[in-house]
Write a structure and sequence with these properties.
By secondary structure, this protein is an all-alpha fold. Helix content is about 55%, strand content about 0%. The protein has a domain of about 160 residues. It has a two-stranded antiparallel ribbon.
């Protein structure tokens, strides 16, 4: 290989003079700057560029919700019911009770009184209103346990003071239970509404036809109890229970707020 060619510096490109370099830059940079328009409009110098997403500011801005959007409450306050409204101190005041809940209360109380009166009538009847055939059937069923029962016969047992106290005590307890359920439903306790529904179903088994009067009273107690429960499940009553739940939650959030 020729030594002269070996010593020549490598040729990396064309060397331009100062005028040629300026002309070259002017020729090739102007189209490039013009081509920048394809990426969006270029605003005047000194202004922030705009894009299809809005003006680009120096700090991040949270996106604004669309028009007509309503914030879904329910996670804004501790203890607030899921899906409920925004709790405020005014919500600690008791909501207005619908009249149908008063009707429900008095219907359930009347059912308890009817049942109590029917049982007191049964207590006053000879042999508790049971016929001789019924007593003989009970004697045959309890014959093997006769030695363990402190009575000579089933008739003696039915007319004993122990049976009288047991029947009166049971009737009074059930009447008080009716009253408590009615009060709970009237005051917006959902648990009492469920318990009252169970009582209304079980009352169907308490129908007694010992005498016509007892049959009428027990049937009246069943009907009144069912009517009271039906009124407790109407939409106005359900809305009242919902507002009572919100009131309870508001009291936890605002314990010092006046409730009256």
């Amino acid at each position: 290989m020729d030594d002269k060619k070996r010593n020549d510096p490598p040729n990396y490109g064309v060397r331009l003079t100062g005028d040629e370099l300026a002309e070259h830059q002017q020729k090739y940079q102007q189209p490039r700057e013009a081509s920048g328009a394809e990426y969006g409009p270029q605003g005047p110098q000194g202004q922030q560029p705009h894009s299809e997403y809005g003006p680009q500011q120096g700090a991040y801005q949270a996106p604004q919700p669309p028009a007509g959007y309503q914030h879904q409450p329910g996670f804004q306050q501790p203890g607030q019911p899921l899906g409920g409204p925004q709790l405020t101190p005014e919500m600690t005041r008791p909501p207005k009770r619908p009249k149908i809940l008063d009707i429900s209360f008095w219907a359930i109380v009347a059912a308890g009184i009817s049942y109590l009166v029917s049982q007191l009538i049964v207590v006053a009847l000879p042999n508790r209103g049971m016929s001789d055939q019924d007593i003989e059937m009970l004697d045959s069923m309890m014959g093997s346990m006769g030695d363990q029962v402190p009575f000579d016969s089933m008739e003696t047992y039915l007319n004993s003071s122990m049976m009288t106290a047991a029947m009166i005590g049971q009737a009074v307890i059930l009447a008080v239970a009716y009253l408590l359920v009615g009060l709970g439903i009237r005051n917006g306790w959902r648990s009492m509404r469920i318990l009252g529904t169970i009582f209304a179903v079980l009352s169907l088994f308490n129908l007694s036809f010992v005498t016509p009067l007892v049959g009428v009273l027990t049937a009246l107690a069943v009907v009144l109890g069912i009517v009271g429960i039906v009124y407790a499940w109407l939409p106005a009553s359900t809305e009242y229970y919902r507002q009572k739940a919100w009131q309870k939650a508001a009291k936890k959030v605002y314990p010092d707020a006046p409730s009256r």
